[in-house]
Specification:
Layout (H helix, E strand, L loop, with lengths): L6 H13 L10 H8 L3 H36 L1
Length: 77
């Protein structure tokens, strides 16, 4: 299960993490990713942004909403 992330977004995000894009200091740039994937730098940044938003919406936000609903049901009981 990829939590709504497309295969292209998943691949880009995994390469970014494994390649050190999110490391401090960064070990790779979006241009490095773009070169590896044979796409534009803009396409890489859009994929990463969309993947992060989708993952956040389908995990953290969804979980928060689910827990809030469960808490409300307990209070209403």
């Amino acid at each position: 299960m990829w939590y709504g992330v497309t295969e292209a977004q998943r691949d880009t995000l995994m390469r970014a993490v494994q390649g050190g894009y999110y490391s401090i200091p960064r070990r790779m740039s979006t241009q490095d990713l773009a070169n590896d994937l044979d796409i534009s730098d803009q396409a890489v940044t859009e994929r990463l942004r969309r993947a992060i938003v989708t993952l956040t919406e389908n995990t953290l936000i969804a979980m928060t909403e689910e827990l809030d609903e469960e808490f409300k049901q307990v209070q209403d009981s």
